[in-house]
Amino acid sequence: MKFRIALLALAICCPIAYAQPSPGTMGTKAAPAEVYDHLLSNLQREIVGAADAMPADKYNFAPTQGDFKGVRTFGEQVRHLAESNYNYFKDWGAPNYVDPKSIEKLTSKDDIMKALRDSYAFAHAAMNTMTADNAFEQMGARKQTRAGIAAFSMAHSMDHYGQLVEYLRMNGIIPPASRKSGM
């Protein structure tokens, strides 16, 4: 839980850091969609890279040594991330919404990877609806904001990315983001 809170704080602070003008652009404001979409692109690169690095025959892998009873398999982790993108951004008015329940049934790596990539296309479309005027407007009964939902979605994704990395390493695979250039 502490890790998730730290990630959430980081996700909220990072857009502020990205929005800081460089010396040559003092006073220039960054558009929220541009800032958050940039963060989402970085996150997507790491998650899709990790998901793609696991061989198809290992998508059913879940740790068995230790207290891992009932944890998601690698493929279930990836499916959950795809489902989550649709759940977090469903009310933003972006096109090509997919009912997350349809993703639950996917079993092959190819189908899960397609669902993951499609979910990021949807998330990017949603992210690009964020403006300075609506980023902090309350949405729905829970009084969330686009900026808050976007930040939390990225913190949630990084939590699962950490699990994907562990599963890769348990299978002797170095995550793409950890590989040195030229390897």
Automatic annotation (TrEMBL):
* Secretion signal, residue range per the UniProt entry: 1-19
Superkingdom of the source species: Bacteria
Could you list this entry's UniProt keywords, alphabetically sorted.
Signal
Q: What Pfam families does this protein's entry cite?
A: DinB_2
Q: Which residues form the DinB-like domain?
A: 42-164
Task: Please name the InterPro entries in this protein's record.
Answer: DinB-like, DinB/YfiT-like
Provide the protein name.
Answer: DinB family protein
